[in-house]
UniProtKB/TrEMBL annotation:
Its cofactor is FAD. This is Alkylation response protein AidB-like acyl-CoA dehydrogenase. Residues 7-123 form the Acyl-CoA dehydrogenase/oxidase N-terminal domain. Residues 127-218 form the Acyl-CoA oxidase/dehydrogenase middle domain. Keywords: FAD, Flavoprotein, Oxidoreductase. It comes from the Bacteria. Residues 233-370 form the Acyl-CoA dehydrogenase/oxidase C-terminal domain. Coiled coil: none annotated. Belongs to the acyl-CoA dehydrogenase family. Pfam families: Acyl-CoA_dh_1, Acyl-CoA_dh_M, Acyl-CoA_dh_N. InterPro entries: Acyl-CoA_Oxase/DH_mid-dom (IPR006091), Acyl-CoA_Oxase/DH_mid-dom_sf (IPR046373), AcylCo_DH-like_C (IPR036250), AcylCo_DH/oxidase_C (IPR009075), AcylCoA_DH/ox_N (IPR013786), AcylCoA_DH/ox_N_sf (IPR037069), AcylCoA_DH/oxidase_NM_dom_sf (IPR009100), Mycobact_Acyl-CoA_DH (IPR052161). GO terms for molecular function: flavin adenine dinucleotide binding; oxidoreductase activity, acting on the CH-CH group of donors. One of its GO terms (cellular component) is plasma membrane.
């Protein structure tokens, strides 16, 4: 294995950095907006439109869909730079990471023609309707129903914690068409369909991020079904495997750690305890980076991603937590308003171990699938 970036990869990173320098507003870092806020959602369309024109929105996609078949390293370098810059793509990171690729794999030609080009042009926002009040970690117990009717389905039920729902054009919805895991199906639902109500949930992560979404007798035509009836478990697993290592949180965590350390040094407050704790946090960021790179390398070689993805995700959560603890302990003034960037990072880091699935579930997967530990007899 070669541990160096090659010249092409370094040049690509430089291109992305130059693009960011030219396209982010001068006061970008001091804007304390949530990723799903009104202003961020509007800005994401301008920004992603410009990324698309520069060939930097979906370089890893096939040429047919506006990409250039770039490898998994290219998309990860892009993701690292975007996340380090505060993710100016807003909710559209999901589109390019997993919604587009999932549509390419499971969609009909008509669904692909309808939904993929707007994603590749950076002009649409999606939301992910998986979690419900009684179905988060245990997704298989979801209760939102999709019942067949003349010409399509009627949807009834409730989703919760749905990011970006207030501005989304389309929902990637999981609903029940039968019993058990094989009784779940995916529907592509335009958010302006009659019977959908969206309520924002106030949260520390920022305005407009999470919502409740209610479906009251919502009609969708039969061609809103993605894949076959009952195929949702396979589709969702595939999507989540792309999402799990799609957000390089460790990169921003390491940047924020360096920022906090620099502030402490400047104030002559970087003492022995802080050095030790920051070293531990930095080591965790590096561990997360290397675990994630292992998955990217697997993707690059077309090897199916195994339970190592859970280790990468858990290492990333730990990196965020250790950096968070360091900042709380040594830079409380920054969190009290002294540094909007550190504060915004801290607020987003709090949810790292729950958004995209609880970290403890990853520990279960590491125990059973990676370490092959025996299950405790019931
Ligand atoms: C900021 C944010 C954004 C989100 N965005 C979306 C979104 O866009 N779309 C969407 O569908 N969902 C979204 N979610 C929901 C998220 O996926 C769920 O919160 C997550 O899957 C956990 O489910 P839950 O909240 O029901 O908690 P629960 O499943 O009730 O878990 C609560 C805690 O119980 C423990 N626990 C539960 N089960 C086990 C187990 N088997 N073994 C060990 N410990 C366990 C864990 O400690 C866990 O943290 C978002 C959540 C957040 C915080």
């Amino acid at each position: 294995m070669d541990f160096q970036w090659d010249a092409e990869q370094r040049a690509f990173r430089d291109t992305v950095r130059s693009f960011l320098a030219e396209n982010l507003p001068a006061d970008w870092e001091s804007l304390a907006h949530g990723p799903g806020s009104e202003s961020q959602s509007a800005f994401s369309k301008t920004f992603c439109g410009a990324l698309a024109k520069a060939g930097l929105l979906v370089p890893h996609w096939p040429k047919r869909w506006g990409g250039r078949d770039a490898d998994a390293w290219t998309s990860f370098i892009l993701a690292e730079e975007m996340w380090m810059a505060g993710e100016p793509r807003g909710g559209q990171y999901m589109n390019v990471n997993w919604i587009g690729p999932t549509l390419m794999r499971f969609g009909t030609e008509a669904q692909q023609d309808r939904y993929i080009p707007p994603i590749a042009r950076g002009e649409t926002i999606w939301c992910q309707g998986f979690s419900e009040p009684e179905a988060g970690s245990d997704l298989a117990s979801l209760r939102t129903r999709a019942e067949r009717c003349d010409g399509g389905y009627r949807l009834n039920g409730q989703k919760i914690w749905t990011s970006y729902a207030g501005h989304a054009d389309t929902c990637f919805l999981l609903a029940r068409t039968g019993i058990g895991k094989t009784g779940m199906s995916v529907f592509l639902v335009p958010m302006d369909t009659a019977g959908i109500t969206v309520r924002q949930i106030p949260s520390v992560i920022g305005e407009g991020d999470i919502h409740e979404v209610f479906f009251d007798d919502v009609f969708v035509p039969a061609d809103a079904l993605l894949g076959a009836e009952g195929q949702a478990w396979e589709i969702a697993r595939n999507a989540l495997s792309l999402e799990r290592v799609g957000i390089p949180r460790f990169a921003l965590a390491a940047r924020m750690l360096r920022r906090a350390v620099a502030a402490l040094k400047k104030a002559d407050r970087y003492g022995h305890g802080a050095v030790e704790q920051s070293a531990r946090a930095l080591a965790a960021c590096e561990a997360a980076r290397l675990y994630s790179y292992q998955i990217v390398d697997q993707r690059r070689h077309g090897t199916p991603t195994g339970p190592e993805a859970s280790a990468a995700r858990y290492a990333t959560v730990m990196a965020e937590r250790l950096v968070g603890e360091f900042v709380v302990e040594h830079c409380p003034d920054a969190l009290a308003g002294g540094d909007p960037l550190l504060l915004a990072h801290h607020q987003r880091a709090i949810v790292a171990g729950i958004a995209s699935g609880a970290a403890e579930i990853q520990l279960n997967l590491i125990a059973t699938e990676l370490l092959q530990l025996p299950r405790e007899p019931r």
